[in-house]
Amino acid sequence: MTIKTHAALLASPGLGHLTPTVELGKRLTTHHGFHVTIFVVTTTTNSSETTKSPILQQTSNLNGLDIIFTPPVDVSDKLDPKNPSLGLRITLTMLESIPFIRSQILSMKFPPSVLIVDLFGFMALPMARDLNMSTYVFFATNAWFSAVTMYLPFITKEAFSRHANNHEPLLIPGCEPVRFEDTLETFVSPWGPIHDGYVNAARDILSVDGILMNTWKDLEPETTQAVIDNDILGQFAKGPVYPVGPLVRTVEPVEKKEGESENFIFSWLDRQPAESVIYLSFGSGGTMSEVQMIELAHGLELSQQRFVWVVRHPVQGDASAAFFDATKGGDGSMVEDYLPEGFVSRTKDVGIVVPLWAPQAEILKHPATGGFVTHCGWNSVLESILNSVPMVAWPLYAEQKMNATMLSEELGVAVRATVAEGGVVFREHIAELIRRVMVDEEGIAMRVKVKEYKVSGEKALSGFGSSYESLCQMAKECELDYVNHSDEVKARGA
Ligand code: UDP
Question: Which residues form a coiled coil (predicted)?
Fold first, then answer.
């Protein structure tokens, strides 16, 4: 296939942002003949973890896809130490990395004509326009949350006040309203600079040449259509909206190879009956209080189900504490120091506790895995759906509460954890949720539904599927722009 277009993709810090960006890059290269350069933005605390991540190792043999790491950035001195907003930290890190990205692009012999950024990369858009590149935003999430972001500039201050003060739902044309219980942190007090920054970012996003979303039409038929067709957006948004998902990391079943040492998780899973193990993980950054971890451990025991549980050291009052550093708060302590006394030895025949990090995509693919207690990060949700695994939805931060509502109330593939007064999910409730997914009739129905969505997701990505076609259209637009861009680059060089 001849190379048509060179696209630069920007991945903001965090594996949840990197994985879908890399998957998009891989598809543009393998299915649409693009040359792709991915700029991976790193921080001083996540740079070594990021460079070693398996998703990047998978790209090393791929022709036409280059990875460039930006120099690690530390923005901690620019943040309020008492309230270090995750969104602001990512945004500032991106901003500091732009001069390096620009200099790299300018030094390329065959410079990219397209820039694709994720939600946090919007500050790079002026640079791209300055270099006469066409601009795309990739929402690595569902259509509902993408719609909320796109509509921000059209939501009045009064509507935000009624939402924050009177807990009225936030109305988004053509979409499910956002209930106050599910709202984003920034909408709880929508008066400060962080909220204003988000609205301004949304304005910038609407001015791009196209918007991509990591979802597919059959998963969210009304919402995707509402975003594609809506008159209000149509008047302001410059480019079309393309649902191109589900883009998730593809993995092969784990098999022990000659000479390799056994992986204890998979050798244990291999010995368990089909769909009998519940997997528990709260994403790349999720943490819990000590009280909550103790309740969860007791709940697991009460459920009497086999399990694989990824645990992190407890952190009080910051659910995303480990986002930039998976070892946060760990100070060398062992899991026995913060789990209930005797838990690990009592459960050693029925479960595995994995400190910090586990190969999630591979675990979800394993035939023994039959349920997933998840914080509802969108990558985790898609990985679960594409492996036909029903979920216990336990959202922690960002848009995860909206995702939990969608999974449990619209799609019927999850049951949702209820947080009791005092902010804790109690052990009896945890045991009940796990049994509803793993044992009860309700779980069987959820399994049927999730299998249907798996099939529809795979169909969307296959030749002539809706997401495949969307990406073809986007690729065609890029090709047309490429012709103009090459003339401009030639003129610049002359
Ligand atoms: N992940 C993993 N092992 C872990 C925790 C997370 O491989 O122990 C991966 C997971 O498979 C997913 C990503 O990290 O691809 C997390 O992304 P998600 O959107 O679910 O959540 P985030 O971390 O962004 O909150």
Answer: none
Q: Of 112-121, 317-326, 409-418, where does mean pLDDT reach its minimum?
A: 317-326
pTM flag (> 0.80): yes
Query: Do 477 and 382 belong together in one domain?
Result: no
Residue 490 CA, ligand 1 centroid: distance in Å: 42
Domain range enclosing 397 = 261-454
304 lies in some domain? yes
Domain shared by 187 and 66, yes or no: yes
In this predicted model, what pLDDT tens digit does every residue of 225-245 receive, in sequence order?
A: 989 886 666 666 778 999 999
Q: Are strands 114-118 and 65-69 parallel, antiparallel or unpaired?
A: unpaired
The verdict on the CB of residue 310 being under 6 Å from ligand 1 is yes
* ipTM attached to this prediction: 0.99
Cα dist. 302→7, 167, 349 in Å?
A: 51, 36, 15
How far is residue 334's CA from residue 354's CA, in Å, rounded to a whole number?
Answer: 11
Burial of 51 (0-12, 13-18, 19+ CB in 10 A): middle
> In testing the pocket of ligand 1, which one of 280, 379, 387 has its CB within 8 Å of the most ligand atoms?
379
